[in-house]
């Protein structure tokens, strides 16, 4: 009996020791592989960072004195008083108010250092450095120091357009009156016309939306955020693109479903039209919080009113001049959101239509106004860009 007990205890001790050794071995292996993975990620990060630095240096060399000023990170901290006054935040990072040594105010967009490989950052610096227009934001400088990246813009006292068109208001008063709304819409159109035709290299923005339109003290609009922009030669009409880019609600159909036509400057025209429709309505074109999309898709409702020559019933219209202004903005927008890119006007034509008389505008063809369901919007928001017959 005693020998049996001793034998059992001996076997138990061996099993316990084996289990402990096995556990220790697994922990050692896990630690080894963890170190390998961390070392690999670290190596990839520094390789990417080194490549970014090479691209930035090449960019500075190519542009010489035309390149924006480069600041080091300590200067960025000093101009923002150690990031004291935060203006906003998004997926890209945060924006802070700052002051340059000459006393002028700036908005400093500090990017998430470990996000991506720096392509969007370099893209934005390269794009805006090619521009000089009253309706395009001016880049005062940038910072690229290790994983610390920042873009420094001229400060816009009135912030972005979105806060003036979506915030709560009364049933009869708008935050921005119709003369200012028209001025903003025309200014954005002129800025896009410049990007498409006025630059040595054509710039396609691909993310036109109220959030990316900044307003100065006189409500003069400035197109901003060129992180998704694409540069191409002026003679090029169709550009190649891997994957969809833009924001749901403003993305042109051909970007999601390539069988509808090639991606070109007409994609910006579509985004512009959708944005102006939200400006005149003071609301989102699609309310993703409601499932009955037939009842909530604003462009459908507007087209029916125009087609039947009925009052648009838009908020804040005080006289016949404002009524004509509103109707003109709606007509132009409905031309811009045509499903077929070839049916959309160029931005030069948009400017011409906005500056012309209402009675000179032809009724636009009825576009295939597609309003996505809530589930489809949710799937698009997480990056699942799919094309089917139901949404073309």
Automatic annotation (TrEMBL):
InterPro entries noted in UniProt: Kinase-like_dom_sf, LRK10/LRL21-25-like, Prot_kinase_dom, Protein_kinase_ATP_BS, Ser-Thr/Tyr_kinase_cat_dom, Ser/Thr_kinase_AS
Boundaries of every Protein kinase domain copy: 81-369
Primary location class: membrane
GO cellular component: membrane
Bilayer disposition of the protein: Single-pass type I membrane protein
Compartments reported by the entry: Membrane
SMART domains xref list: S_TKc
Any matching Pfam family: PK_Tyr_Ser-Thr
GO molecular function: ATP binding; protein serine/threonine kinase activity
Chain residues that bind ATP: 109
Keywords for this protein: ATP-binding, Glycoprotein, Kinase, Membrane, Nucleotide-binding, Serine/threonine-protein kinase, Signal, Transferase, Transmembrane, Transmembrane helix
Annotated transmembrane regions: 12-33
UniProt similarity note: Belongs to the protein kinase superfamily.
Protein name from the UniProt record: Protein kinase domain-containing protein
Lineage of the organism: Eukaryota, Viridiplantae, Streptophyta, Embryophyta, Tracheophyta
């Amino acid at each position: 009996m005693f020998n049996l007990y001793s034998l059992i205890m001996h076997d138990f001790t061996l099993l316990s020791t084996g289990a402990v050794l096995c556990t220790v071995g697994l922990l050692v292996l896990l630690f080894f592989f963890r170190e390998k993975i961390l070392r690999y990620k670290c190596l990839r990060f520094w390789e990417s960072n080194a490549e970014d630095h090479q691209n930035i240096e090449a960019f500075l060399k190519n542009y010489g004195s035309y390149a924006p000023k480069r600041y080091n990170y300590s200067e960025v901290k000093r101009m923002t008083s150690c990031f004291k006054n935060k203006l906003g935040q998004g997926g890209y990072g945060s924006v802070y108010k700052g002051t340059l040594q000459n006393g002028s105010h700036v908005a400093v967009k500090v990017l998430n250092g470990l996000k991506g490989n720096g392509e969007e950052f370099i893209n934005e610096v390269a794009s805006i450095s090619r521009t000089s227009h009253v309706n395009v934001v001016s880049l005062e400088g940038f910072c690229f120091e290790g994983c610390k990246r920042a873009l420094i813009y001229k400060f816009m006292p009135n912030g972005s357009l979105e806060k003036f068109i979506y915030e709560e208001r009364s049933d009869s008063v708008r935050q921005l009156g119709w003369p200012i709304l028209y001025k903003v819409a025309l200014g954005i159109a002129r800025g896009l016309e410049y990007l498409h035709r006025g630059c040595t290299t054509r710039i396609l923005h691909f993310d036109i939306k109220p959030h990316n339109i900044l307003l100065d003290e006189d409500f003069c609009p400035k197109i901003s955020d060129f992180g998704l922009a694409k540069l191409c030669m002026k003679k090029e009409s169709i550009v190649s693109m891997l994957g969809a880019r833009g924001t749901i609600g403003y993305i042109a159909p051909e970007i999601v479903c390539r069988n509808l036509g090639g991606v070109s400057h007409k994609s910006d025209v579509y985004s512009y039209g959708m944005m102006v429709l939200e400006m005149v309505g003071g609301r989102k074109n699609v309310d993703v919080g409601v499932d009955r999309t037939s009842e909530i898709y604003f462009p459908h409702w507007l087209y029916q009113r125009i087609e039947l020559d009925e009052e648009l019933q838009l908020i804040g219209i005080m006289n016949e001049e404002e009524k004509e202004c509103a109707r003109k903005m709606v007509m132009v927008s409905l031309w811009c959101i045509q499903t077929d890119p070839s049916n959309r006007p160029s931005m030069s034509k948009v400017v011409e239509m906005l500056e012309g008389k209402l009675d000179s505008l032809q009724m636009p063809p009825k576009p295939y106004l597609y309003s996505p369901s809530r589930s489809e919007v949710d799937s698009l928001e997480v990056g699942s860009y799919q094309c089917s017959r139901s949404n073309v």
